[in-house]
Amino acid sequence: MSRHDPDIRLPLTGDGPLDPPAEWQRLRERCPMATAELPSGDKATYLTRYDDVKSLLSDARFSRPTATDNAARIAPDGAGGPAANGDTSLAIPDRGEPHQRWRRQVGKYLTAKRMTALRPGMVSIAESLVEDMVEHGQPADLKAAVGFPFPVYVICDLLGVPAEDRDRFSYWSDAFLNVSRYTTEETRAAHAELNQYMAALIAAKHTEPGEDLLSMLIAESAEEGEGLSDDQLLHTGVALLVAGHETTANMIGKMVSMLLADRTRWERLLADPSLVRTAVDEALRFDANLGFGLRRYLGEDVDLDGRILPGGTTVICSMPAANRDERVFADPDEMDLGRSPNPHLTFGAGPHSCLGQTLARSELQVVLDVLLRKLPTLHLAVPAQQLQRVEGLLVGGLRTVPVGW
């Protein structure tokens, strides 16, 4: 297999906006470690089997590449946002014990117990957004009316961001995840604006602390003397905003679309709302439009299922392909709303798994529960095959989700 002759070119897409690429099954069976060409033209190794993806993501030696790793780039000509390019200016430690210490410090404010305490506020936000959507009439774009604003409002509440500043965060988040949607100048300007805003917010929290996560981290730093620096606080805020906004905003639209594409799924949840929790995890597993997958740079040789991947290799771990692996999931191409256990890899695995997964699950459960309760007759206003994928970002999504009720 020549490094100059790729097996596939990324991103792969299915026949329809919610469908998995047919290549995934072929790759899992015949070429589970394929050579892939990225939009930049660089080559990487593309993993599609569950055990391979989980093994690599769980390996504490490897994390996302930085700009100094000489890893395969996703975006062409360095045009991508910091998340696509591997920005070394981020002050968050991403390897070894410093990374785990940072995760422990921030993670204690993102526990299931804390999410339970935040849940009534989330419900209130979701209900208000749904009511506003109904008031504006149908058809409506569920993504614009609920999916996009809901997680940014929640994360802004968590960070203590003033309500009037919420809408500015959407554009900044998009630019951070840019692959080809924005120019280099636009991406740099948005990144600078976001950093400037977050620095001013942290300075304000030092002066007038609140009950938000940033204020709590500042107070902890002052008490213990070994907390996060202001640079680390800034980039923690940026990371939580981007991770907590764009991915969940897109997932709300995709989840509802998947459930409405086959009406029997929605009807099953109406008949048994206790399935909301497992339905959310099944939507996360079933999602075929997740984006590129997680990039890892191998600083040393790795034995993966008897095959040596040499140091210097860039690996793309395709979680959605792994989530369809028939070796792990019975009837993987069926959306089973009661599937349990459901060990999907959508949030990654191991020491670098998604820190905000409890928050994301809570948000998705709240939105789904509110929609079932307030709009039981909700339906797609266009055939599912007419939905259009988001292009040019590191994460997958749908451009709009037209609905009626």
UniProtKB/TrEMBL annotation:
Keyword Iron recorded: yes
Entries under CDD domains matching the protein: Cyp158A-like
Alphabetic keyword roster: Heme, Iron, Metal-binding, Monooxygenase, Oxidoreductase
UniProt superkingdom: Bacteria
Coiled-coil regions, chain positions: none
Name of a matching Pfam family: p450
GO terms of molecular function: heme binding; iron ion binding; monooxygenase activity; oxidoreductase activity, acting on paired donors, with incorporation or reduction of molecular oxygen
Cofactors required: heme
InterPro entries membership: Cyt_P450, Cyt_P450_B, Cyt_P450_CS, Cyt_P450_sf
Region (Disordered): 1-22, 65-95
UniProt keyword Iron, yes or no: yes
Similarity comment: family membership: Belongs to the cytochrome P450 family.
Name the record gives this protein: Cytochrome P450
Originating species: Streptomyces malaysiensis
